[in-house]
Amino acid sequence: MAKQGTLLIVDDNQNILTSLRYLLEEHFAQVLTLSSPTTLPTLIRQEPVDLILLDMNFSSGINNGNEGLYWLREIKRMKPQIQVVLFTAYADINLAVTGLKDGASDFVVKPWENGRLVQTLLEAYRKGNGKDKKKQLAPQMPDEGAMYWGESEAVKPLRMLVDKVSATDANILITGENGTGKDMLAREIHRLSNRRNGPMVTADMGAITESLFESELFGHVKGSFTDAHADRIGRFEAANGGTLFLDEIANLPYHLQAKLLTAIQKRSFVRVGSNRPQSTDIRLICATNRDLDEMVRKGEFREDLLFRINTIHLHIPALRERKEDILPLAGLFLKRYAAKYGRNLQGFDEEARKLLLSCPWYGNIRELQHVIEKAAILSDGDEVKTDALQLAPAHHPEPDRKAQTEEDMQTLDEMERSLIIKAIGKCSGNLSQAAAQLGVTRQTLYNKMKRYGI
């Protein structure tokens, strides 16, 4: 069989890289190696990589696999067509499932068996190049980035407004509860706009630390601070000619809001360490789950900044306000994940449908997607049943309250999830306040919300 494709091996052990290069050069046209993933984004932009064998741990003393999962997600974000096989010395089934859910093709455990490793990599390569017959026969998955509008009356006014304003360059503010799809709507607006051929750049204001705010948004020049080893462009510059999406805008500290306002007003910025203004041509979209008018009244958000970002206000209704769309959305997610995990699932049984419709879905579409993905993995046969949905007791229709018995006890995960939901509700969606009330950092709260589909 003729050698085909480019394989990239990422592992911090030089002996492993050398051994694998000798082994796999017999099977692939080109084998590249990296001892650190830090230059991985640059390499996959420059080289036509088809397949990556990715180690899960790179930092000394750390073996939880989180680094590998982070780089897996980065690869899939940048180049979703690249197949990734995870490589780890720790045979953890939960880690394997997480990696598969995040887009990995397969999972190989060290120490490896040569024949099994080669077979796994070749199967992943064939899958990525359309040579897998099962893949060819699989039903077409819905596009994960596509906006699902549905038929609900609650959404129709929003859709009409989006159609009207997308072609303009007006600044847009998207509001809605967590999980309603604000980022997806932002991508849809960009797709419908005259800037569709330009870049869409996203910045999560809740995830950028205060100390790195200016560097992340405006860039920096080499030597401007301790770790500035090279010039770096910021989000405003990267989005030139396209759309800049600022998610969780309400989480931007008050004292930094003036700097953002100046850049928006002037459509120019100054890199950290420079004194030369640079202009940028962007279309600005912001999103939040909080009431910015109320924040202005409390002195937590600048009124002049709100005026600038809020030329057009789009509000996405909660999923419980568009019940007609719950089952169609669940069907789309089921089709996607049945194809992804090789399940022959055709739909939901009657009891499962009733349960899906009766749930309040506090986490909205994101929570529904998480539940259906899990159900697709756990289901047998051709229909999803209620037990596969694994909905927490709080999501079932309210029963007549009886004295709790030992059988009513929740798992620790269910208790933690319920506690997070209560804290967010009590704080009116203010994640910073909810994190403080729960005694965790804001980033930890984000991670737990993603884990539980909130």
TrEMBL record:
The modification 4-aspartylphosphate is found at D55. The keyword Signal does not apply. PROSITE patterns: RESPONSE_REGULATORY (PS50110), SIGMA54_INTERACT_2 (PS00676), SIGMA54_INTERACT_4 (PS50045). Pfam families: AAA_lid_14, HTH_8, Response_reg, Sigma54_activat. GO terms for molecular function: ATP binding; sequence-specific DNA binding. It comes from the Bacteria. The keyword Transcription regulation applies. Keywords: ATP-binding, Nucleotide-binding, Phosphoprotein, Transcription, Transcription regulation. Residues 6-125 form the Response regulatory domain. Residues 148-377 form the Sigma-54 factor interaction domain. GO terms for biological process: phosphorelay signal transduction system; regulation of DNA-templated transcription. This is Sigma-54 dependent transcriptional regulator. It comes from Candidatus Phocaeicola excrementipullorum.
